[in-house]
Design goal:
single chain; 145 residues; alpha+beta; Alpha-Beta Plaits; SH3 type barrels; 2 domains; five-stranded antiparallel beta sheet; 21% helix
Length: 145
């Protein structure tokens, strides 16, 4: 089935997708899927039987800009975003790491605990006034070399 991109106002992707879903449900428009990918800001992907049906679903929806008619998006191009591959944890307790995101950005810390199920790590900042353990997502840190 063809997948079309729809340009929308940045930050309104989820609202537009919900409005399109509600319209399709209410009016009986045959849309197979609506996909919002957080990394793809300002675009949502709509799968439908043809361009006319997808266009009908998007007409009159607030925050829509333009339907991207050509080229159609292939499902294989979206798979890398949908699979949600988790990164391999190469950090051990006691390692010194650098915080690369968040309020403690650029701080050096020592790993105290790793929670692989949640993808979180508890660290103790080394160069701060208070040595209070902080729990962060694993992608907020990198191993200090």
């Amino acid at each position: 089935m063809p997948i079309y991109g729809l340009r929308v106002t940045g930050g309104q992707e989820f609202n537009v997708a919900l409005n399109i879903f509600n319209k399709c449900e209410k009016e009986g428009i045959n849309i197979y899927s609506i996909t919002v990918i957080p990394e793809s800001k300002g675009i949502i992907y709509i799968e439908g039987p043809d361009l006319d049906t997808v266009s009908k679903a998007c007409t009159g929806i607030q925050h829509t800009k333009a339907l991207i008619k050509f080229p159609q998006v292939k499902a294989s191009e979206l798979e890398k975003f949908i699979k949600g591959e988790t990164q391999k944890i190469e950090i051990n307790v006691g390692d010194v790491v650098e915080i690369i995101k968040g309020a403690l950005k650029n701080e050096v810390a020592e790993v105290m605990k790793i929670n692989e199920e949640k993808g979180e790590v508890t660290v103790r900042p080394l160069n701060t006034f208070l040595n209070v353990p902080v729990t962060l997502p694993i992608n907020y840190i990198r191993k200090k070399v």
